[in-house]
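Sorry to interrupt, but I need a hand with the structure work. I would like you to pick a protein and set down its sequence and fold. Please put the record directly below this note.
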Amino acid sequence: MLWVLQPLVRLRLNRRARREPAYGLRQAERFGHVPPEVRPHCVWFHTVSAGETIAAAPLIRQLVEAFPDTPFLVTTMTPTGSQQVVQRLGDCVDHCYAPYDFTAGVKRFFQRVQPEILVLMETELWPNLIDEAAATGVPVVLVNARLSERSARGYQRISGLSRPMLGKLSDIACQSQAHVERFIKLGADPQTTKALGSVKYDVTLPQEFPQRVQYWRTAFALRDQLVWIAASTHPGEDELVLEAFQALRQHLPETILLLVPRHPVRSDEVVELVRNAGLKVACQSVCREKPLDKVPDVLVGDVMGTLLELYGVANVAFVGGSLVPVGGHNPLEPAVCGLPIICGPYQFNFTDVMAHLSELEALQTINTADELGSRVLDLLRDPEELSRRGSLAASAVEQNRGATERVAALLSARITTALAQ
């Protein structure tokens, strides 16, 4: 079936490249052709996209320091993930795209790279990839693993494929016990499937964070205005955010909206939406070149790798991908910045984290644009409540740190064993 679909995959990749030119580059890597600078006999991490790469970077760097004579390779599937590897780990790891899960490409990749061990992040379970690792004696460890109820039902429908695949994993380090139980129900080994916590709770603010936040405040010409950030938004969601913002502005006209689409390539589209709503707009990339003289109604975030800094600029956060059925994005980045968090009803990508933050009153769930505007307005009108919920969010992150150390201990043992064989 995959062989038949291969021409369609190439066609889809080329079509996407017309919208996002980065997808037109390095296409050979996606079919198992590895760049010559990638060293063989490596520890191979696969981190998919930007979010997984950012979360895994401290763990990878810690292991690189523990095994200085061993090459490390980090693969991704998206250009944004690739940018984050270069930005955060470019001085200590090799990098290329992972092959699509076609047999020929996967075999070509393994023959060239000859990894000692493969570490997969979160839910990157590809049958041919894992099958080839098992066939060549390469141990596979799934870390920061998560499996929503929705995904578990999907895997259950193809249990003839998923059960033997899970049986080939050496270890599964899950984010919570609920994920452990779902993996075991699908066929994972109970002896090697454990809850070690989420490495995303180990997000930290860099030393230069206050200076970077002040840099953007100056670039945006912000003084004492209240700022609402709507981050990682998707098509269909931006319109709802703008509707909520316009309703809010009837009561707090000086409030500024910082609107950050999940994919920066959509920034022109988002700018057009803002203008059509009758609002003044400026892009972050333009402000970086020349600071604004006067802050507009809406600032559109379009510079990769700066989301954490933009959270630092804001007073309250809406986390996108949650008012449309995407499943929501990482709420721990605004939490570590001490922001109260608002999300829509679609939270299945971070079910446990969002439930935990909700229990602590650090996160509020809304269902409509009207509710979103009303909730943001209530928080911005009540500085004490704003501060209380933001402090609860920051405390939740602080109290759940430590997964990186636990996962690093597991991987150190597995890497040591793999290198000794």
The chain is about 50% helix and 15% strand. The chain has a mean pLDDT of 94.
